[in-house]
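Reviewer comment 2.1 asked that we show a complete input and output for one of the modelled complexes. We chose the D-glutamic acid case, as it is the one discussed in the main text.
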Amino acid sequence: MKVGVFDSGIGGLTVVKSLLEHELFEEIIYFGDTARVPYGIKDKNTITRYAIEAVEFFKNFELDLIIVACNTVSAYALTEMRETSPCPIIGVVEAGILATSNALKDKKSNILVLGTKATINSKAYETGLNSLGFNNLQTKATGLFVPLVEEEIFSGEIIEATFKHYFEQISVPHAIILGCTHFPLLSEALQNYFGKDTILIHSGDAIVEHLRQKFDFKIKYKEPTLEFFASENPEALRAIAKSWLQLK
Ligand code: DGL
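Response of the prediction step:
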């Protein structure tokens, strides 16, 4: 299978990492809209317009599937993207909700949902979790995490100050949904802050779990073909991909 992976920037590389670890695809085409990141502070109309443009871009590749590796786009624009796409499209929000429900036996578990302002305002996670019987939720828009990750700042004083700013009123949850694909890069810092008993739900692992339920993956692709595109400075994105994904 040939898959397209889309994010507003470099965050979706955390999803590519999971896809590579599980050796699911023969060919992966990544597109990051680096010229217009962040999406998380924009409104539905703008996010949808950009997302439809990404579908147009992917039409050059005869894909079997598009994975929207961006929670913000998944929360707002999947329906509109599907209307113009020649291939199926799946998003990370639905996958994250199912993965959370699979990870937590107790419906009373306290779940902290982190995401961009747009994702949190959409209430996509809350609605999905409530419908599965999870009602003990805390939600927090932590948009500053996006530029920090884009700057490759994953620990240290700035991260500690940002956590203090966002989490002062937050009680220690049983699980945290990393509802933005940039956030897994802060996993270690979050785990140190909240303690190792808190489960972290990662969009990449969630999408792999979801894909395995939907499709029958018989072949393993140890060395898939990878191509990286960006709307601005693709060389910078390729350099980050190379280092994060430990590519040769
Ligand atoms: N990586 C995107 C997400 O999963 C958000 C980053 C942005 O604000 O563009 O929501």
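Residues 94-202 form a domain with the Rossmann fold fold (CATH 3.40.50.1860). We note this here for comparison with the apo prediction described in Section 3.2.
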